């Protein structure tokens, strides 16, 4: 009987050792959706336009005032964030909205870090200066 208990204890010990493999760190942004509420662009209120960002599986996409946009992103280590050059649809819109879109896509390309606090996301440049500020919105899930 003691041999059976010893074998059982040894099996449990070996299985416990297998479960200590570190898991991949979870993404801080994947599966989140945001609406732009502020930015570093002077003289233009981003809340006058629909500008959004949804992060999923290494891609960020949304509405950039007039057009839909899409780009890749890499997160980490830590709070680092890099967004590739964005592509977009090519519709024309009112001049003010087109200017806001151009500014947004330029700022998005300058992003080098992020911070999250509750339902707010701030994207910053390489010097840590705020570029874009978002409020969280419910993410749309695919059926």
Q: Any overview of this molecule?
A:
- This protein is an alpha+beta fold and 143 residues long.
- It is 22% helix and 36% strand.
- It has two helices and nine strands.
- Strands 1, 2, 3, 4, 5, 6, 7, 8 and 9 form a nine-stranded antiparallel beta sheet that branches.
- It is globular.
Topology at a glance:
Blueprint: H1 2-18, E1 32-39, E2 52-56, E3 59-64, E4 67-75, E5 81-83, E6 87-88, H2 95-109, E7 113-117, E8 120-124, E9 130-137
Antiparallel strand pairs: 1-2, 1-9, 2-3, 3-4, 4-5, 4-6, 7-8, 8-9
Query: What is the total tally of β strands?
Result: 9
Biggest sheet layout: 9 strands, antiparallel
Weakly predicted, low-confidence segments = 3-26
Using the alpha-carbon principal axes, give the shape.
Answer: globular
Q: How does the helix and strand content classify structurally?
A: alpha+beta
Global mean pLDDT: 84
Order of helices and strands: HEEEEEEHEEE
Strand content: 35-45%
Offer a few descriptive terms.
disordered N terminus; alpha+beta; 9-stranded antiparallel beta sheet; 2 helices; 143 residues
Summarize the structure.
It is built from two helices and nine strands; from the N terminus they run αββββββαβββ. With 143 residues, it is α+β, with helices and mostly antiparallel strands.
